[in-house]
Amino acid sequence: MTRRTAVPITLLTGFLGAGKTTWLSRALQDDTAGRVAVLVNEFGAVGIDHLLVGTIAPDTVLLDSGCICCQIRGELKDAILNLMTQAQNGEVPQFDRIVIETTGLADPSQILSTLTFDPVLHNQVVLQDVVTVADALNGASLHAKQPEWVAQVAAASTILLSKTDLVPEDRLLGLQLRLGLINPTAQLLDARQCPSFADIASDGVNGPALTRSRAPSHSDGTGAQTLSLSFDVPLDWTGFVVWLSALIHRHGTNLLRVKCLLNSPDGIVLIDGVGHTLHHPRHLDSAMPSDQNSHLVFIGRNLDMALLRASFEAFLNVKTS
User: Fold this and answer.
1) Per-residue CA distances from 176 to 14, 139, 210, 229, 280 (Å)
2) Is there a domain that residue 255 lies in?
């Protein structure tokens, strides 16, 4: 049997009523969608009735776009492997992408941990994007104090703002600023202007977002804190790995997101993680900002960011800005 290339996964998350299903339905009908398999917790929570063609396998339905939608029964890992086996056996159509739509109260970190560390899934799938749909109408007032909302925003590589036509410009700007404080590394897009998967495609680097001008340390009012560090000397890679491992071991439950673009002796390296889950380092060819500095962003709760900066500088013997 020919071994297939690892299937890219898009994790679609967002708080209750944010509009993630509305966006997903549009994206599935777009001409550029390609062959997509969607994994959901229950069909009843997903607005696909008008797209439904028929049942093609247990817990699996065919949509009029040619995509398939599968209901997760039990563990996510088993659902993914079962879906891939069905495709290989011709029981369901072949697919080129998997979209996992979470429940509105899901903390993405557990799903990301499964996708990253499971030894069987590791060679079968690859996480491509974490897309969080943020409700512009209710995000600032109703959701900001919910820890799940903050975790969803912090985990995102792309944030899609929904219902932007229902709020005045000044209120929308305020939410955009708040989202930028929680997750300064994510690309922030208007869901109405991004009707397809191609519109939200991200290489996971987002270099400019790492280097935009901002206060180096702050709290945004939701309980989330952000620390941004930059330095212009080559990185002691071994020392950094030891320091970061100690940080995650000690504060993993309070560490929402880590994103680093590093100038190491072996080239440019991207480090990306959520909670205890740290993805494998990626060596990049041309993503380094023009200043050649290393840039690090830490998002967490109940952390002493001044102490974190001091420990980083002392352990790595560097001065940060």
Assistant:
1) 16, 10, 16, 22, 30
2) yes
